[in-house]
Every structure is written in structure tokens, then in C-alpha cells.
Amino acid sequence: EQRYDQGLKKSRQGFGAKINALLANFRHVDEDFFDDLEETLIEADVGFDVAVKISDELRDEVKLRNAKAKKEVSDAIVEKLVDIYEEEGHEEDNSLHFATAGQPTVFLFVGVNGVGKTTTIGKLAHKYQQEGKKVLLAACDTFRAGAIEQLNEWAKSVNVDIVKKPAQSDPAAVVFDAVKKAKTENYDILLVDTAGRLQNKVNLMNELAKIKRVIQRELPESPQEVLLALDATTGQNALTQAKQFKDVTEVSGIVLTKLDGTARGGIVLAIRNELHLPVKLVGLGEQMDDLRTFDAEKFVYGLFK
Ligand code: GDP
Hints:
Structural class: alpha/beta
Bound molecules: guanosine-5'-diphosphate
Oligomer: single chain
Strand order of the largest sheet: 3-2-4-1-5-6-7-8
Helix content: 40-55%
Order of helices and strands: HHHHHEHEHEHEHEHEHEEH
Strand content: 5-15%
């Protein structure tokens, strides 16, 4: 698909091109080849462990198969990259979960400022609205007036409803009203923005716990997803952030934003391998259509073509 393709352009020119170059110069598989492969993978942000794992496994396989052909080696690399992502036994985690029919689905969004949380909510609201669903937003990042206003702008531009209160209101009070409204007015989906102040972990933990409690009082099976937004351009820092968020709340999946802005798309694999969290959505630009569900195979093949 074209948009996906465009969004991965930088990664393809960086990560993909380097591996392709490595293969182009390939005469036979020797230790230099594996060293170079490892280095390329590390540079692409797949993480040290993944890089070593891939080249180790490949080393064994190539020897076993006695692979000499370039094509065979490149296929094996692609296969390994996909395998890392599609962690055995976790296949069902890869897609977004929805409520049983007749109940509103609730997605909670967490993440620090600037990673693209609000934009993602706006894009997703647009997508569901286009599909004919009744969408409600809840502006629970009440810490910053700007955050409320920004979400409100998105609500207006994609034409969905929003529940908001003045800055500094209790986020739990906002979500309380939003859940009530979603239930009584038969909304299909409620997207909840939250403040991601990691500076005060205890507060954040309590705040998110309270938001969840309020949701569950009305909708015991919700939220169906707690999605952590991470900025792909921040590389290994995104991993550190994810680890910190995992300490404060249960996370069900990752939204990896700004994948269009990095040449190091390998961060997707590092997240999977180190955090065992699926990337459920990827941001490929600033416009409302620039959000996609994540497909490991499409992603990896997209890097190499
Ligand atoms: P928040 O503070 O986490 O809510 O972040 P915002 O949603 O305000 O996004 C911060 C900036 O990143 C804005 O300028 C967005 O337009 C931009 N942004 C968000 N997602 C993407 C993306 O997928 N690609 C690109 N290129 N920019 C993005």
C-alpha cells in the first residue's frame, strides 16, 4: 500500500539499503559478513540482543544449508526479522481488541508529551468515524490547557464528540462523565487522552489507576486497550520510556509514531524483543490518514524492496 510505503521511505533508504548493500557485496558468508550484518542491525536500532541473535541464528542456518546464493541469505534475514516480531504464542496480541457488541470499546492512551499521542487519537477517531462508528473523545490530560485545546481541535476537524473540563480538573471526573455519556448515548468507541508526566511516577500511577477504576465501575471489561505512544525517532530512549511506563501501568500495545521520520525502523523489533509488547499502530505522518495497523511482514518486506 502506497502510504505505508512512503512512510517507510527513510528506513528503507537507511536500514534497508545498508542490508541490501551488504548483500550486493556479498561473495560468500564469512565472519566479516556477520560482523557487518550485526553492525548494520545495531545501527538500525533493532537493539544489541536482536542483532546478535539474528546473526547467530543465521550463521548456524547458513552453515547447515550450505547457503551460497545471495537470495537464500537475504530471504533468511527477512525471515528472521519477521520471526523476532511474531513472537511465538503471542500472535493474538498483535491486533486491537474491541468490546463485545452493544458495549462501548474504550482505549486509554498513555505516553509523555510530544510523542504524538493527541495526533494518534485524532487519526484513530477519524478512521472509526469514517467506518461509521460513533466516536467519543475524553480530554483527561487536564494538566495542560494546551492539551485539552489540541484534542478539541482534532474533535472539531474530524467531526467527533468530546468530553472536556477546564484545565486542572480531576482527570477521573472527566472520564466519569465520558463513560456515562458513552454508555447512555450508545457510542461505539471512547478514546481517552491522559497526561504522561513521568516526572512524578507515583502520581501518574495513581492517576491512571483511578481513571481505570472509574471506567471499570461502568464497564467492567474496559479498557480494551492501554496504548503507549512512543516516538520512533527517539530510538533507544523510546525503549527506556516504555520500561518506565510498564512500571506504572499495564500496557497492552504500542503506538509507534513518526516512523516516517526515522531511518532506523528497527526499533519496532527492539520493542518486541525487549519489552514483549506488540506494536499495534504506526504513525506515518502528520495528516489524519497517516495511521496504520502494524503488520510485521509488510513492514520487513517494505524495508528491503
Ligand atoms: P502529544 O504531546 O503526545 O499529544 O503529541 P502531539 O500529538 O501533539 O504530536 C507532537 C508533534 O508530532 C506534532 O507536531 C505532530 O504533528 C507530530 N506527529 C505526531 N505523529 C506523527 C507521525 O506519525 N509522523 C510525523 N512526521 N509527525 C507526527
